[in-house]
Amino acid sequence: MLRRIALPAVLVIMLAALAASLEIRQTPATASSDVAAGDSPMLGPSGLQIPRFVSLKTDRVNVRRGPSTTHQVVWVYARKGLPVEIIAEFELWRRIRDSDGEEGWVYHSLLAGKRTALVAPWLKGERLTLLDAASANGSPVAAVEAGVLGDLSRCNGIWCRFSTNGYTGWVKQDLLWGVYPGEQFG
């Protein structure tokens, strides 16, 4: 009887030790709001903040079930520049989340630090206005449909400078997927 109990206990201890040695660091549910509020960010094994937004470097990116080439490819992204959120790291692999909430593992060299965003992908079929100033009183520059992909050059915590298809203007930060609420850069 003692052996039956001891073996499962040994397996539990071994699995716990293995998990600790993998250095996978997942973020707490409040990490993105904590980072935006100016609290100390959590750093991954790479030394970079987790969570953080990056973009896809190429127009073909395999997303895997786990952090190695031996894991199954569960889908393939075919859109260079698509923003994704890194939510964990393991060695040279990054666990990412897309705007639909789907998660998987991607090799680090397929990701770029370039900041991009999707305009309100949750407002399918609607149009939003790019403005010439970071103010609700700005003049319209262009109308963009929800889901449009563009580059971010800076964000002030309320508004972001957004460029797409030859147009550049300001969009309310809370209408973009690819930047945290209150995040500032550029």
Fill in the keyword field for this structure.
186 residues; SH3 type barrels; 14% helix; six-stranded antiparallel sheet
Structure characterization notes:
This protein has about 190 residues and is mostly beta strands. It folds into 2 domains: about 20-115, SH3 type barrels (Roll), CATH 2.30.30; about 115-185, SH3 Domains (SH3 type barrels, Roll), CATH 2.30.30.40. Helices cover about 15% and strands about 40% of the residues. It has helices spanning about 1-20, 30-35, and strands spanning about 40-45, 50, 50-55, 60-65, 75, 85-90, 95, 105, 110, 115-120, 125-130, 140-145, 150-155, 160-165, 165-170, 175, 185. The model is unreliable at about 1-35 (pLDDT under 50).
Taking the alpha carbons of the first and last residues, their distance comes to 64 Å
How many individual helices?
Answer: 2
Report the C-alpha radius of gyration, rounded: 20 Å
Q: Note the overall shape.
A: globular
Helicity range of the residues?
10-25%
CATH superfamily of the largest domain: SH3 Domains
Instruction: Estimate what percentage of residues fall within beta strands.
Output: 35-45%
Whole-number tally of structural domains: 2
Mean of residue pLDDT values: 84
Structural class: mainly beta
The second-level CATH architecture of the largest domain is Roll
Unreliable parts: 1-37
Helix-strand topology string: HHEEEEEEEEEEEEEEEEE
Number of strands: 17
